[in-house]
UniProtKB/TrEMBL annotation:
GO terms for biological process: positive regulation of protein localization to ciliary membrane. Residues 16-128 are annotated as: Disordered. Residues 27-37, 59-70 have a biased composition (Basic and acidic residues). It is found in: Membrane. GO terms for cellular component: ciliary membrane; plasma membrane protein complex. Its main location: membrane. The keyword Membrane applies. It comes from the Eukaryota. PANTHER family: EF-HAND CALCIUM-BINDING DOMAIN-CONTAINING PROTEIN 7 (PTHR46819). It comes from Plectus sambesii. Residues 260-295 form the EF-hand domain. GO terms for molecular function: calcium ion binding. This is EF-hand domain-containing protein.
Length: 486
């Protein structure tokens, strides 16, 4: 086949784009594979926590629950001892016991925290009469952070409200034909953060039967960050297959994309079509390119795409998106390594299942005013940026003290559907603790830090873990043995 000058130009431009991405993608995915194995080795014991319907619970006295008023950890001077009283609902909220060993090598404290009684699922508030409703898609993926540790990355948003108004915000996980059928809804929540104050002012606590978390909040005119977050309890990195199956076919003998791969590309296109208009604008295509190749799209590269692939109103069509990958397959002459690297970065495994991705839909509705909702980028959760710190401080301030040993204070924030444990160490020098949750009941636990040897930053609040029930209709609890190491 003789190529025209225009066709050769297209191929040369595409090859240049691919060469810029290839090394980035290969290195990144190789690190990700190593990280996944290490991550599962580190948390291999947490599946044991989701076992049973019953376990022995401590019967020692429980401490009073102290409500925190300020922004710094508060440690009570004394712990009041209360007798067990199963007939009082307040007595079920916290139970703790402390035991100091005679061995000088360690100080051990045991406590058991019973989450609040489960509240029935609630439908989202009716927003049919609201003036403005804006929807945006989003997603969570697994990646590695700068320290080479497992990290959930996700889309973030900015909301601009043009007048003081009531706003209903919902976030709901979605599925596509490439995803395994979920046994329970993914845990996708959202925090509303005041941009000027850097404070969380609302959190989606209620949930309907389909996994849609929601909140209604009165907001002043202004700009807000919307932070979707996932506890990582149900959304986990995939396990490496001990006997990996042969990979699904991406291309056929004539170098055409396989039917299955074309369907996957259509689902990927739909996932990155964040405004759900059936097209990819430059910002959306750029997010895809950054995710799969670590490179932003330059003006020249976008011009090449615009001039040579199917476009509509200046945006890339699904047909053009598939055509671009068809040309990549042709240029690679049957080598699918780069295609697999790209698929891994958006959550796909060797069987073309979306096993490490969690798409969702976010919606904001205002009662009487106009609002704007824009995507600000993709960023790792659980990092020390302003938004994550704001969420950490909110959960600490609105939580309950469940134990303190004059040095380490642990607080719990709970909703009817999940809990968070946080810790603060008042020492000026770093201490080390072993946090053992092996005796918890019906609990899925996702540690945010290394619990086997937790070394809190002095005089700072840190997230320990998120937890939620394995079986939502059964009782569950968290049982912790905290041992101070020498």
């Amino acid at each position: 086949m003789v190529l025209t000058t225009a066709e050769r130009t297209v191929e040369q431009n595409i090859v240049r784009m691919e060469q810029k991405e290839r090394l980035h993608r290969r290195d990144k995915v190789e690190r990700q594979r190593e990280r996944t194995v290490a991550h599962h080795q580190a948390i291999s014991g947490r599946d044991r926590l989701s076992s049973s319907d019953s376990s022995a619970r401590p019967s020692e006295p429980r401490s009073t629950v102290e409500k925190r008023d300020g922004g710094q950890p508060q440690i009570p001077k004394e712990i009041d001892r209360l007798p067990l009283d199963s007939g009082r609902s307040s007595a079920r909220s916290s139970r703790s016991s402390f035991r100091s060993s005679t061995n000088n090598a360690a100080h051990t404290a045991d406590f058991s925290v019973l989450p609040p009684p489960r509240r029935a699922c609630r439908p989202a508030p009716d927003d049919s009469s609201f003036k403005t409703t804006v929807k945006r898609k989003g997603y969570f993926f697994y990646d590695e952070n700068e320290r080479g540790e497992a990290a959930i990355v996700g889309t973030r948003y900015k909301l601009v409200l043009h007048a003081d108004d009531a706003v209903v915000i919902t976030i709901k996980p979605t599925t596509n034909s490439d995803m395994p059928t979920p046994t329970s809804p993914m845990d996708t929540m959202l925090a509303v953060i005041d941009r000027e104050k850097g404070e969380v002012i609302a959190l989606t606590k209620d949930r309907d039967e389909n996994g849609c978390f929601h909140a209604r909040v009165d907001l002043d005119r202004g700009s807000y960050y919307l932070l979707p977050f996932c506890t990582g309890c149900r959304f986990r990195p995939r396990m490496e297959d001990k006997q990996p199956k042969s990979s699904a076919a991406l291309i056929e003998e004539d170098l055409k994309l396989s039917k299955r791969f074309r369907m996957v590309l259509m689902n990927v296109f739909d996932m990155f079509d964040l405004d759900d208009n059936g097209l990819l604008n430059r910002e959306e295509f750029n997010l895809y390119n950054v995710r799969t190749g670590d490179e932003t799209v330059t003006d020249d590269e976008w011009r090449v795409v615009s001039e040579n692939f199917s476009m509509s109103s200046g945006e890339l069509t699904m047909k053009g998106f598939v055509e671009l990958h068809q040309l990549e397959a042709k240029d690679a002459e049957g080598d699918t390594d780069d295609m697999w690297l790209s698929l891994a970065q958006v959550g796909y495994d060797s069987q073309l299942q979306l096993s490490e991705g969690c798409p969702f839909v976010l919606q904001a509705s205002s009662l009487a005013s106009e609002l704007d909702l824009t995507v600000t980028g993709i960023k790792a959760l659980m990092e020390d940026d302003m938004e994550w710190q704001a969420l950490t401080e909110y959960l600490w301030s609105n939580g309950q003290t469940v134990t303190t040993d004059t040095v380490l204070t642990i607080r719990q924030w709970s909703s009817p559907f999940y809990s968070a444990l946080l810790a603060a160490d008042t020492q000026e020098t770093r201490q080390r603790y072993n946090m053992d949750f092996a005796h918890s009941t019906n609990a899925i636990i996702n540690p945010v830090v290394a619990l086997a040897e937790f070394s809190p930053r002095p005089q700072e609040i840190q997230m320990l873990l998120f937890a939620m029930p394995q079986h939502e209709t059964r009782p569950w609890n968290l049982a912790l043995r905290a041992t101070k190491l020498q």
